[in-house]
């Protein structure tokens, strides 16, 4: 990637967007329809993104990355989605490494980050959510008990996307029993799991079939050994380290949603211009034209919040409310655009060859993951408006 480490100026971003569009042109709808039909991982697409350097854009130059900021990363993901591709196959590699970058030791950063940047290693799996606790992270049950120079991990994770295609997993596990901690946020630790080594030594990965091709899995740990040197930061402080990276995740997902929304608007607008019924283009009818215009207005409005969240993040300013609101507003606007696009296409909106139904399914995910709309509303109510905690 040749963008360098400049500020997020318009010229810089335009060059990045153009380069991403050129890369995505090699992966048209036919490619994604085949992967979707076969429930296959888009290996070729991920390899192309890796070789281009786009996935390493947030890794500092000293570790082999581009040293760019989240505004650049967001532009990359937005253009991927707008091109009709799906960054969900690998987007976690952009932000998951942030825990190592911000809280890892110098030795850990030197050991892992250059290999992640080059593509020698993939850090795409994020082991947090569990079947019993869901988004109640402080109630997770997976344990990591220290014995000598290693941790012994037992438990289960669910909705661990890309586990089958990742070399490393960033794992959050309980190292101190819940009833023995002074603060609810204590007792959880973050460690890096070498999944290739663990697969034959107690780690089991079970794919989950879902409504979209997202490579989601259940992961089971049965006395899996993790070297103590793989602990990130201080034992028992892992929840804070994970929270630290969630703003980045939400801002980047919000960019993806903006890209999805713009894809639907582009697609719906083009079809409404070309499709003629009763001797006139259907886009001339207010029943078709106004929903497209409304979807456009809502996507552009959400984009302003996304840009503000990214600006504050890059400036090192507190951005929790903006990160959460940008993810919520962008995901809802994208879904509105998806509904509009299906309605505009009529029956053809359900035909696989138009790609609308595939993107429709993919877009619905982001009102649920990586955090649900209701939890965002609860956060705003409590932490922004000062209302009583709702959960």
**Strand segment count:** 10
Sheet/helix structural class? alpha+beta
Tell me the number of helical segments per DSSP (H or I, 4 or more residues long): 13
- The ordered H/E elements are HHHHHHHEEEEEHEEEHEEHHHH
Uncertain runs are 1-8
| CATH class category name of the largest domain | Mainly Alpha
At CATH level 3, the topology of the largest domain is Butyryl-CoA Dehydrogenase, subunit A, domain 3
Strand order of the largest sheet: 1-4-5-8
Strand content: 5-15%
* CATH H-level homologous superfamily name of the largest domain: Butyryl-CoA Dehydrogenase, subunit A, domain 3
- Our Rg estimate from Cα atoms comes to 21 Å
Distance between the termini: 44 Å
Mean pLDDT: 95
Overall tally of structural domains: 3
Topology diagram in text:
Layout: H1 10-24, H2 29-38, H3 43-52, H4 70-82, H5 92-95, H6 98-103, H7 106-118, E1 123-127, E2 143-147, E3 150-158, E4 168-174, E5 188-194, H8 195-198, E6 203-207, E7 217-227, E8 231-232, H9 238-274, E9 276-277, E10 280-281, H10 286-314, H11 320-345, H12 356-364, H13 373-384
Helix pairs in contact: 1-4, 4-9, 9-10, 9-11, 10-11, 11-12, 11-13
Write a structural description.
- This protein is α+β, with helices and mostly antiparallel strands and 391 residues long.
- It has three domains: 10-118, Acyl-CoA dehydrogenase/oxidase, N-terminal domain (Butyryl-Coa Dehydrogenase, subunit A, domain 1, Orthogonal Bundle), CATH 1.10.540.10; 123-236, Butyryl-CoA Dehydrogenase, subunit A, domain 2 (Beta Barrel), CATH 2.40.110.10; 240-384, Butyryl-CoA Dehydrogenase, subunit A, domain 3, CATH 1.20.140.
- The protein contains 13 helices and ten strands.
- The chain has helices at 10-24, 29-38, 43-52, 70-82, 92-95, 98-103, 106-118, 195-198, 238-274, 286-314, 320-345, 356-364, 373-384, and strands at residues 123-127, 143-147, 150-158, 168-174, 188-194, 203-207, 217-227, 231-232, 276-277, 280-281.
- Strand 2 (143-147) and strand 3 (150-158) form a beta hairpin.
- Helix 1 packs parallel to helix 4 (70-82) and helix 10 runs antiparallel to helix 11.
- The radius of gyration is 21 Å and the shape is globular.
